[in-house]
Amino acid sequence: MPSPWFSFSALLADHPVALWLAALAAGAALCCLLMLLLRLTRARLDRLAQPAGQGVAGAASRILLRTSWVVLALASLLLAADLVGAPLPGRAGPGHLWFVLIALQLALWLDRGIEVGLTHAVAARGRAGSITATLLSFLLRALVWVIVLLAMLDNVGVNITALVASLGIGGVAVALAVQTILSDLFASISIGLDKPFEAGDFIVFGAVAGSIEHVGLKTTRIRSLGGEQIVCSNTELLKQTIQNYKRMQQRRIVFSIRVTYRTPVEQVAAIPALIRAQIEQQPDTRFDRAHLARLGESALEFEAVYYVMSADYNRYMDLQQAIYLGVMRDLHAAGIALALPESILHLARRAAREEEAAA
């Protein structure tokens, strides 16, 4: 016994308008069903996302939100037309139309996936990564849409060989014309991904020392110690050896003290312990060593090494001052004098020559 559906299709075979009306009705029903399934799927993913909107489930839900109802409606209509046997206008076959719809929807999902992924990366890295994320988002989205557009044109029978060749030649010409700008743009991406510094970091390179104010697409702005703003090309900045003091976990300090040779040996032997005691009294410090390092030309030279467990320069200067003052007090209390730069000149008088000169 033949199926009622096929009997109905055969009955309307000579009435394309009636077939398309039936296809529209079936497509509308199918589209509503697909939209309901999509909403239920997103609701399930939202319940699985912990915390809300985060994780793989949250990302998948946000990507599905980019599903185009126009593409969904056209796909439903195309499927319904194929089921009822409605004739397609023009010479485009259903295979080409299916490819265009699927490619377009995949491009929309990829576009949203890039946005979701880069948004998560910016949230993890902080505000400093927003510039890089914006540039990467633009480049990746442009790449996706160019590939999808070329694929759709090729699928519908357009010869894209000449178009691809023209795009290649044009791309080379543009790259040569703006190579300096492109170099800075890719340097900005490198800074965003590698993170040699961020806004707020204090860096030193060459003769420049200052705090990073802004990392842009082409330049980086630095506020120097003198107060002026220094604008540096990203490409030139990455060519330098950069010292990032903001990321310093501890600061190694070396200082020396000079005492006179008139100091007794017993007191000389006690000076390293005296220096160590002063260093260990200060908070946020770690003593390393203190020794009689050199027998200088005019003084006994002691060398001490310790670490300040902070990157704050002002904090380091406060601790260094406290250590110096404490050592000076202890030396004064012990009767040990600090050596001053001096030189002794011995003059020999020759009495005979003086007598001859007098005669």
From TrEMBL:
GO terms for cellular component: plasma membrane. Pfam families: MS_channel_1st (PF21088), MS_channel_2nd (PF00924), MS_channel_3rd (PF21082). Belongs to the MscS (TC 1.A.23) family. The keyword Cell wall biogenesis/degradation does not apply. Signal peptide: none annotated. Residues 180-247 form the Mechanosensitive ion channel MscS domain. Residues 253-337 form the Mechanosensitive ion channel MscS C-terminal domain. Its main location: membrane. InterPro entries: LSM_dom_sf, MS_channel_1st, MS_channel_C, MscS_beta-dom_sf, MscS_channel_2nd, MscS_channel_C_sf, MscS_channel_TM-2. Keywords: Cell membrane, Membrane, Transmembrane, Transmembrane helix. The keyword Iron does not apply. This is Mechanosensitive ion channel family protein. It comes from the Bacteria. The chain crosses the membrane at residues 17-38, 69-88, 131-152, 158-178. It is a multi-pass membrane protein. It is found in: Cell membrane. GO terms for molecular function: mechanosensitive monoatomic ion channel activity. Residues 139-179 form the Mechanosensitive ion channel transmembrane helices 2/3 domain.
